[in-house]
């Protein structure tokens, strides 16, 4: 194997794939990235057995061949090479990869290409194209609510499925950690109507989210019951899906909440952030006292003292006190795009629904705290 | 249908001997059980001296000799009959048992499996009588000679049941079990002298204590468990609704690797009860690491009707009518005593420190210093088997010394031993009378010496502090006045009685932790309601019942559970502090703990663990330079904060060396 490649394009591709590789591995080959040169292109593959990413990039002077080298080491080397350098890679007979750029030269120990686990796509019967901006939106609006508690593995991802919305079917993303829930809808792309509901793992969500930022156009999505593939032009992410049943979330979204509150989203978020400064413990409870067209936020810390802030709000229902985890509130308010946020409440011990005036296709449910 | 099997078993009535041997198997499992029964008989007979002799771990010979009330010829013959006893009668029911024995099974059971010889004389009578039983065959009562009292000899135990004999452990192990059994009984009966001989060798001796009440108890516990224990133990005195708790509980810094040295006596009867294990774990929680155990001996006296002792053949277990109240009493009494102890750490830390100094090689005098002062471990071992020193030399006892636990009948109005509101300092400590102030100001001259250190000698890792104007007042504090910080980690302070060395990080961490726990207790645990209530399947109904029973208590710590069909609970709210946590795992652990220990420890553990982690990050680290004002503030806060004598894992936060110990180090004494 032999090839020459521009430093910046190698760095960009490595940057996409190397984060899949875990820092610590019990299987040595999983620390490596597969380099495969053929047909005027270098393709790089990294995997953790649950998730694989393949990215192809232009190269020249190619003598076909393939090998694997430690991903983080290669990434660090290329990162430190001078900008604009031409990097040449060549594999010698002793299974060592020589990397040369200008006067720098590195020799890396390799592991044979045949040992590298290949992630077979299998049959992916459902195919559709989703605009990158829509995929980005679905992820951003729900990702924060993914559970990190591994005993409830079926909550460790985003549930992507076709659901019945108010005006017909929608493609919906839902995530919850049992304390709050986030849901975002988009139109069902052609070819997606028959897809099964799938749970996309948190790590995969993170990797594709990184790729979206550098990509415009439609993301090619293909999936089966067990695997999903996202195609971003030259980069392709294939991932196993979480084998579990996502809870029937629709039951926990309250329908009959009648106390309507709406207020300026930024002012609300800033006020929550301000009053929660005084909270010293990890629970960070903030109490909302709803009165006639006003809302008073208060936090009491046994150690520090108290904080209160009053805000103007549209609220006509009967007065009520309700407590929330301020971090959960800020997570939700951070995703609201419009100037006005609306909430529908029922009682201090029932879930509250939060909606975004500017994006009616997103919805958040937050369970209160007892304070 | 199958034809009846030709060898169909037939039901027969068993012979008397077989019946007796089966029954004996329940009461007498090993020599220690037989010995326990015999010693209990001697105690019930009102003996003042009990002498035990063992041979070959009790297998060849078990002899118990007492000077109790004895038996006449008629009683002797009846004593070896099954279900014959002098301790209860048919008019009394089993709910009012005041003696250790009551079943009338011990002697016949032992007689069924061994060669038993009884010799007894009633005081004032002119003749003793003897009787032998061999493998269940009762001989005739014959006149004999002996002093007043009874001697019971058991030879060749289990000769009639060779199978049981094969299951016994080594002689050494059986001897140890026998001695342990006698020690347990000895703890509860300070008014009785005990000796145990293994062959001719004296292995345990406890002199008869003629004092009454707590003094006798303390002296007896010192004889059995060692002076180290009694010197590092707190008096426990509590009473609630007719249930009285006394005894001694070790300081958290005086801990052991297992829970074997935790003794509970119910109405003078040694029992093993999971209730004690759970209550002790709960009371010492967050003073000790999970794998360390305190040492304690607790004596519970309650009306005979409140406890059922007839639940176990060997009477090792009891059942309380109101177990929750007894547990509550034990937990609160221990907690109060520990709180009242304030920052007191076990003074064996000082002994250890001195021993460490004395052992320092290269000091030139190492050999003879060590000889002059045996190590703490040697001293502890030496004390364990010696009669205690006169009680006068011991730590001052609280004013409200209760009645002797052997005499549960004598009513005494309950007085709290300590002011439970906050930490209390031993008033009138011997050191304070020794002209401590003068010593602090001039006698030691230490302050001046430190203050005049040449700045050039001031090593980067140690700083000396000049005494301030109010120094004399500071020195009078229990932890004294800060004099220096060494290695930016330890504070050296001068107190009226000597020198105090404080680990600044451990001490401050504990202070922050205590503050957080207080905030948690005052502010309550904020509860996050669950959007998706978590259903937790439990394998057994007992776990569900236990969780539901204690639901109110769990809710106080932020966990709201409700029963959910058969064998499951649903969790509706969790402590917000724990965030996104493994609720199912937590609930299962709690259910197991409630079933096994009757205490929900895991929840508090998790909450306190969050506090402890935050405390660790929020406290002064080792390596940070402190000014003298900061150091003094830390010392004053330690004095004012309960439980500041140990870190969260039972390690001491400070070591205090008094002048005696320092002078001994320099062979001035």
Automatic annotation (TrEMBL), chain A:
The keyword Acetylation does not apply. Confers DNA tethering and processivity to DNA polymerases and other proteins. Acts as a clamp, forming a ring around DNA (a reaction catalyzed by the clamp-loading complex) which diffuses in an ATP-independent manner freely and bidirectionally along dsDNA. Initially characterized for its ability to contact the catalytic subunit of DNA polymerase III (Pol III), a complex, multichain enzyme responsible for most of the replicative synthesis in bacteria; Pol III exhibits 3'-5' exonuclease proofreading activity. Keywords: Cytoplasm, DNA replication, DNA-binding, DNA-directed DNA polymerase, Nucleotidyltransferase, Transferase. This is Beta sliding clamp. Forms a ring-shaped head-to-tail homodimer around DNA. It is found in: Cytoplasm. Pfam families: DNA_pol3_beta, DNA_pol3_beta_2, DNA_pol3_beta_3. NCBIfam families: dnan. Residues 130-248 form the DNA polymerase III beta sliding clamp central domain. The keyword rRNA-binding does not apply. CDD domains: beta_clamp (cd00140). One of its GO terms (biological process) is DNA strand elongation involved in DNA replication. Residues 1-119 form the DNA polymerase III beta sliding clamp N-terminal domain. It comes from Rhodothalassium salexigens DSM 2132. Residues 251-370 form the DNA polymerase III beta sliding clamp C-terminal domain. It comes from the Bacteria. GO terms for molecular function: 3'-5' exonuclease activity; DNA binding; DNA-directed DNA polymerase activity. Belongs to the beta sliding clamp family. One of its GO terms (cellular component) is cytoplasm.
Automatic annotation (TrEMBL), chain B:
GO terms for molecular function: ATP binding; ATP hydrolysis activity; ATP-dependent DNA damage sensor activity; mismatched DNA binding. Residues 221-339 form the DNA mismatch repair protein S5 domain. PROSITE patterns: DNA_MISMATCH_REPAIR_1. Keywords: DNA damage, DNA repair. It comes from the Bacteria. Coiled coil: none annotated. Residues 482-626 form the MutL C-terminal dimerisation domain. One of its GO terms (biological process) is mismatch repair. Residues 395-447 are annotated as: Disordered. GO terms for cellular component: mismatch repair complex. CDD domains: HATPase_MutL-MLH-PMS-like, MutL_Trans. It holds the Pfam family DNA_mis_repair. Transmembrane segments: none annotated. This protein is involved in the repair of mismatches in DNA. It is required for dam-dependent methyl-directed DNA mismatch repair. May act as a 'molecular matchmaker', a protein that promotes the formation of a stable complex between two or more DNA-binding proteins in an ATP-dependent manner without itself being part of a final effector complex. Belongs to the DNA mismatch repair MutL/HexB family. PANTHER family: DNA MISMATCH REPAIR PROTEIN MLH, PMS, MUTL, DNA MISMATCH REPAIR PROTEIN MLH1. This is DNA mismatch repair protein MutL.
